[in-house]
Design goal:
With about 450 residues, the protein is of the alpha/beta class. Helix content is about 35%, strand content about 20%.
């Protein structure tokens, strides 16, 4: 994917200097810091932090366990609800979820308990003598899971716990999905995503097949015939288009593709880095892209959004990270034209300034040009249409450009379930994808058991 930027120079800094730029964004708590921070928790009855957690972690309980120096108990409580609790502790926007709900926000200090860091502390320091979960008696049922991202992995783990055998089909060469390929390198460092996958698979009963692409060498109608149920955890693998001439020019690429190459790079100094970069978008991916290209050595990085800062989907915390890394944020500007040099490569972009006319966004007729050696699109993603191109897949009911499911994550086709970013309900958050997979697994298991009982009745 990074071929679009091959004409650009490689990162100027040494490999070791660049590695220093991609250490933990938020350093882990020491044992003493964790003890002090856990003592700040009021252990509320019907705690608002727990109610705001998409994966239903009993926050007050695990923090109490940390305070009582029962680290394994804290970790087991987290993992019972969120088997990917380690990555979620690092990437979850706690500032708008559990920590935003913390009652400590309203006392004299006005500072919430550092729930995310405490969750990380519990999982990083747990030392289980044996795997903390046991499989139930085998049911003899086999379920296909398409996608080894957070939703698919969570679904597979819960199904295996309930005694089912699971086969995961994953298109890429590694499992982990967004955690492995799409999160900023300074949020999930080193090989953490793979170590978390290995821990999850230790439950047993889960087989993973890589290089299996739905719509290419894997087909929904075959899975539906061969397995007792199918779960689709497809994620959103296709980048949206700007719809502008020159969008395929060298120097313009999807931010998620660059981030994936960055995360898989063994030597950061080998990556092409523009001197001047534009990032188009307003979400956390746009922030991740802008900050990372700046840390790799880009001198001038401008993030451009067509609306105002108050409408950005990136949290204030993420916006502050961008500003701290000297990323310029330009709002009220809509992409209008890709500017090319004589060789047909990107040299910048022209934008039209915008404003609101009531609730409608309109152009003002004023234009700005921003010079750049590379432009990165972070304007959202959608499902790859190839994956749902066969005749059976086309029968899935859609809600917008996503798959419609009911409250139990059943699709319109009996025996086929879906969850995570590819379905309509909720936000595109890792923690919510984990919850979708877990709840879908329980629905699948119950539906299968009901069928068995009905056939025997």
């Amino acid at each position: 994917m990074i071929e679009s930027l091959k004409h650009l120079p490689h990162a100027a800094s040494s490999s070791s200097a660049l590695a220093e730029q991609f250490t933990d964004l938020a350093p882990a708590l020491t044992r003493r810091q964790a003890a002090i921070e856990s003592a700040r928790c009021l252990y509320c009855y019907d705690a608002p932090c727990t109610r705001s957690c998409p994966s239903e972690i009993d926050v007050a309980s695990f923090i109490r366990n940390i305070h009582d120096q029962n680290i394994n108990g804290a970790a087991a409580g987290i993992l019972k609800q969120n088997i990917l609790g380690g990555s979620c502790a690092r990437v979850c926007p706690t500032e708008i979820l559990c920590e935003d709900a913390c009652v400590r926000n309203h006392d004299e200090e006005g500072q919430p308990v550092k729930i995310g860091l405490l969750q990380r502390h519990a999982l990083d320091h747990a030392s289980f003598t044996s795997y903390p979960f046991q499989r139930a008696e085998r049911t003899g049922k086999r379920i296909a899971v398409v996608g080894a991202g957070p939703a698919g992995l969570s679904c597979a783990h819960r199904l295996a716990m309930l005694g089912n055998d699971v086969v995961i089909f994953e298109a890429r060469s590694k499992s982990g999905g967004l955690n492995e390929y799409g999160i900023a390198k300074y949020k999930l460092t080193g090989d953490f995503a793979q170590r978390e996958v290995e821990f999850l698979l230790s439950i047993g009963g889960i087989d993973v097949q890589h290089g299996r692409i739905l719509g290419v060498n894997l087909h929904l109608h075959e899975l539906h015939t061969q397995y007792d149920a199918v779960f689709l955890g497809l994620g959103l693998n296709a980048s949206r288009q700007l719809g502008l001439t020159g969008e395929d020019a060298p120097g313009l690429m999807a931010a998620v593709d660059y981030i994936a190459d960055l995360r898989q790079a063994t030597d950061l100094a080998s990556l092409p880095v523009p001197k001047r970069a534009i990032v188009i978008g307003a979400g956390n991916t746009a922030i991740d892209m802008a900050v990372q290209i700046k840390r790799l050595g880009a001198e001038d990085v401008t993030l451009v959004y067509r609306r105002g800062a108050e409408s950005m989907s990136a949290t204030h915390h993420e916006q502050d990270i961008a500003k701290a890394n000297m990323v310029r944020i330009r709002t009220w500007a809509a992409p209008l034209e890709v500017l090319l040099d004589d060789a047909g490569r990107v040299r910048g972009m022209r934008f039209e300034e915008t404003r609101l006319d009531g609730a409608r966004l309109i152009g003002t007729g004023a234009f700005i040009e921003i010079a750049a050696d590379a432009v990165f699109k972070a304007i959202g993603q959608c499902m790859d249409p190839v994956g749902l191109s066969d005749q059976m897949a086309q029968q899935l009911t859609r809600e917008g450009d996503k798959i419609h499911v009911d409250a139990q994550f059943r699709t319109a086709l009996a025996g086929i379930y879906a969850g995570g970013d590819c379905v309509a309900p909720g936000q595109d958050l890792t923690v919510q994808a984990v919850q979708h997979g877990k709840l879908a697994a329980m629905a699948i298991h119950n539906d299968i058991q009901f069928k068995v009982e009905a056939s025997h009745g």
